[in-house]
Design brief:
This is Protein kinase domain-containing protein. Keywords: ATP-binding, Kinase, Nucleotide-binding, Transferase. InterPro entries: Kinase-like_dom_sf, PQQ_b-propeller_rpt, PQQ_rpt_dom, Prot_kinase_dom, Protein_kinase_ATP_BS, Quinoprotein_ADH-like_sf, Ser/Thr_kinase_AS, WD40/YVTN_repeat-like_dom_sf. It is a single chain. Helix 4 runs antiparallel to helix 6. By secondary structure, the chain is of the alpha+beta class. It has 13 helices and 43 strands. The longest helix has 20 residues. The radius of gyration is 26 Å and the shape is globular. Strands 1-2-3-4-6-5 form a six-stranded antiparallel β-sheet. About 20% of the residues have low confidence. It folds into two domains: about 325 residues, Orthogonal Bundle (Transferase(Phosphotransferase), domain 1), CATH 1.10.510.10; about 425 residues, Methylamine Dehydrogenase, Chain H, CATH 2.130.10.10. A hairpin with a 5-residue loop joins strand 35 and strand 36.
Length: about 800
């Protein structure tokens, strides 16, 4: 990653440039952000190619084909301009290193990681081939490692070069060490050629070298690809047969991508790519890089700050023509007899966790105002970032209290319905709802209901509850979408707005970008509020993580910068914007180095959040002054719940405790029995009862008044440690772990009414929210609306 200079434009289309990611024979790729805060990689075609009519035509066809690819582990194009003076395309930015960088820095991957990597990439090839494309340049630098799985980039882009001066008849296009024999010898290449290249990539991942490495140059490598057998001796025995079969010289003898998934991951790619699929050193570096990228502002080009900002991000996930990777595993894309390589758009980023929604009956979070935490953006389906750093996964289990707890994941895409106010740029959560009426006849005991409706997104949703406001359900993803809570129909979508920093309150859904907080009417989607960019003293406000909203203000972590200064973490203090206008209401500085991973809620005109000193902190919503703090023993990101008078924390050896909201005094505490270690789940509170799991395979109800255990209901397996249960009327919905589904527990009889399952065993978790009348359960790329009985 390099800083911008005077030769770079300020913006490309609707995207403001932040840094340069790479440069090569096709053009330049930039790190950029939309006005709505979405981070993308923008590829700009070289001027001399832009004037070639044949190239433009081919480039346009390839962009259209790439847009047709819909796969969880591919890199879809999210925006493009083909008719302007200089064509360009934008893809979502992947917060993670290339496979080349990871292996070069941290060494070969363990066998379990290689299997998961191969299964994910095989799934990606299925999507690419289904769109009528052949990748033709699958190599380690075109594979990015995200927390929730690999991303295959640069699919089909080389085909846009077929008619240009670099790829005349007889010219071999690709990377010599990773080509298939038919490609290396100039013969036609089909999907089986990609399988051969994938096997070469997996061998590199497992050993640190390719199957046909040679010190004698590209020509020698090509000869070895066509005539020699691969070097498989360093592979683990269990992988040798699988990878060897993919490297067969005869394309007909190679397995298909579907068969390869079964050989590498019998339970499927998503099951193999659960939390922890990456080794700890890679995951830790990924977390550090992701935090740095999300903090990036638009610096004055050529300044020391710009240089430092670019150097602070060691991974450059987008490469152009192999230019960003030299030596080692790839050697770049080589066009024998011509200039170097093809372009490389990036893959979807793992979104940041937004705020939770919901209007939980009997809780203090009626507006569903919950925080999003940047520290969880790497979590995918779980708490990878903290676990990688030596922490415990459940400590990042999402925001506490009320309707549910957010946790990060992937992004999603959709089409915009006619008449929606969606902007043209970016991608969003989306899809077409499929309402299913509930059968009128009574169900047998234990039989789950049919969903009231289902909303299948076109891509993967964030692993987080949906936000709920004024009868609209807002899925968490890269874009901002509204779904009618009753019918399941998508009402509007804004594709240029990132919903990864979000909150709901005062009839709006709020999003935080790098320079402002914006509010959109929940029903119409129209922008109706935007925060000031300057404080009363004329200093620049740098917004960060949203902590919540109520009828008076939006609360967030932020930084205040002297006029003209750029670049900040956006987490130096706590700030409130007044909803009556747009100005800063107050700002309170936090201690230097304080962890930005917090859990928070807004209730009764006050802001409550955890800190990294294991305290629960209360601040006045009017002026931000600290009212009190209570030593709960809960880590900064550990969730808590609250009703009108008390907060409830369930953590570590301290067990379950209640703290008064008025002064922070402890009301009661249920300690863990001496010598026991338990993994608690988040709790919720409603109607004077606290619900949660104390580390056993049971759901427990405690009296909110004194902590007395009221009842305990056994469940088949220990519930998910990532999301809280949720009460809707007299049914407590408890998210099971993965394929266990959602348990519906009758709180009057303390028994399971029924269990809703979708038949999928993908390793995803369930995240719950409600409008008080129905449950909205998010799983992978789908939201299910369920009745409470």
């Amino acid at each position: 990653m390099e800083p911008l200079d005077s030769t770079d434009p300020e913006a490309i289309g609707p995207y403001r440039l932040l840094a340069r990611l790479g440069e090569g024979g096709m053009g330049r790729v930039y790190l950029a952000r939309s006005a709505g805060g979405r981070t993308v990689a923008v590829k700009v075609v070289r001027t001399e190619l832009a004037g070639d009519a044949e190239f433009r035509e081919r480039f346009g066809r390839e962009v259209a084909a790439a847009r047709a690819v819909d796969g969880a582990y591919t890199a879809p194009v999210v925006d493009a301009e083909l008719g302007g003076p200089i064509p360009w395309l934008a893809t979502a930015y992947v917060l993670g290193p290339s496979l080349t960088e990871a292996v070069r820095t941290h060494g070969p991957l363990p066998e379990s990681s290689v299997r998961a990597l191969g299964a994910g990439l095989a799934q990606a090839l299925r999507a690419v081939h289904a769109a009528g494309l052949v990748h033709r340049d699958l190599k380690p630098s075109n594979v990015l490692l995200a927390a929730d799985g690999p991303r295959l980039i640069d699919f089909g882009i080389a085909r846009a070069m077929d008619g240009d001066q670099f790829t005349r008849t007889g010219v071999v296009v690709g990377s010599p060490g990773y080509m298939c024999p038919e490609q290396a010898s100039g013969r036609p290449m089909g999907p089986a050629g990609d399988v051969f290249s994938l096997a070469s990539v997996l061998l590199y991942a497992a050993t640190g070298h390719g199957p046909f490495d040679s010190d004698s140059g590209a020509a020698a490598q090509l000869y070895r690809v066509v005539h020699d057998e691969p070097e498989l001796g360093a592979l683990p025995p269990a992988l040798r047969e699988v990878i060897g079969g993919c490297l067969a010289k005869d394309p007909a003898r190679r397995p298909t991508p579907e068969q390869l998934v079964g050989l590498l991951a019998p339970d499927g790619a998503q099951a193999a790519l659960r939390d922890g699929w990456l080794p700890v050193p890679v995951a830790s570096a990924l977390a550090r890089h992701a935090a740095t990228v999300m903090d990036m502002e638009t610096p004055a080009r050529g300044t020391a700050q710009a240089q430092a900002q670019a150097q602070a991000t060691p991974y450059a996930p987008t490469t152009v023509d192999g230019a960003a990777t030299t030596g080692g595993g790839d050697g770049g894309t080589v066009r024998l007899g011509a200039s170097s390589g093809s372009g490389a758009p990036t893959a979807p980023t793992t979104p940041l966790p937004p705020t939770t929604a919901g209007a939980t009956t009997g809780t203090a979070t009626a507006t569903g105002d919950r925080p999003s935490r940047r520290g969880l953006l790497l979590a995918g389906g779980g708490a990878l970032a903290l676990a990688a750093a030596g922490g415990i996964g459940w400590a990042l289990s999402g925001s506490g209290g009320g309707p549910g707890k957010p946790l990060a994941g992937g992004s999603a895409g959709s089409t915009t319905p006619a008449g929606s106010p969606a902007a043209s740029a970016g991608g969003s959560a989306g899809g077409s709802a499929q309402p299913v009426p509930v059968p009128s006849q009574s169900r047998a005991d234990g039989v789950p209901p049919q969903p009231l409706w289902t909303y299948p997104a076109q891509g993967r949703l964030s692993s987080a509850p949906a936000l709920v406001s004024r009868g609209m359900v807002h899925p968490q993803g890269a874009g901002l979408v509204a779904i009618d809570a009753v019918t399941g129909q998508e009402k509007w979508a804004r594709r240029d707005v990132s919903a990864t920093f979000a909150a709901v309150g005062a009839g709006r859904v709020y999003t935080s970008s790098f320079d402002a907080v914006s509010g959109y009417d929940s029903v119409s989607g129209q922008p109706s509020w935007k925060s000031a960019r300057k404080d009363p003293g004329g200093n620049t406000i740098s917004p960060g993580i949203l902590l919540g909203a109520d009828q008076q203000a939006v609360y967030l972590l932020a930084s205040i910068l002297p006029a003209g200064e750029a670049g900040t973490t956006g987490t130096d203090g706590v700030l409130a914007f007044s909803l009556a206008g747009s100005q800063q209401l107050w700002f309170q500085q936090r201690k230097a180095g304080t962890d930005p991973l917090v859990d928070s809620l807004v209730a009764g005109g006050s802001l409550y959040y955890t800190d990294d000193q294991e305290n629960l902190v209360a601040r006045s919503g009017q002026d931000g002054r600290q009212l009190w703090f209570a030593a709960t023993g809960a880590k900064a990101a550990f969730p808590f719940a609250a009703d009108a008078t008390q907060a409830y924390c369930l953590a570590g050896g301290n067990g379950l405790q209640a703290v008064r909201l008025s002064d922070g005094g402890q009301v009661w505490q249920n300690r863990v029995p001496a010598g026991e270690q338990r993994m608690y789940t988040p709790v919720t509170v409603a109607n004077g009862v606290v619900y949660g799991t104390d580390g056993t395979a049971a759901v427990t109800a405690w009296s909110a008044k004194d902590g007395t255990k009221l009842w305990s209901c056994p469940v088949p397996r220990r519930p998910s440690a990532l999301a809280a249960p949720l009460l809707v009327k007299e049914t407590l919905f408890v998210p099971g772990a993965g394929d266990e589904g959602v348990y519906a527990i009758d709180v009057k009889q303390a028994r399971i009414r029924w269990t809703f399952k979708n038949g999928l065993n993908t390793g995803d978790d369930w995240f719950l929210s409600t409008d008080g009348e129905r449950l909205f359960a998010t799983f992978g790329a789908t939201i299910y609306a369920l009745p409470p009985v």
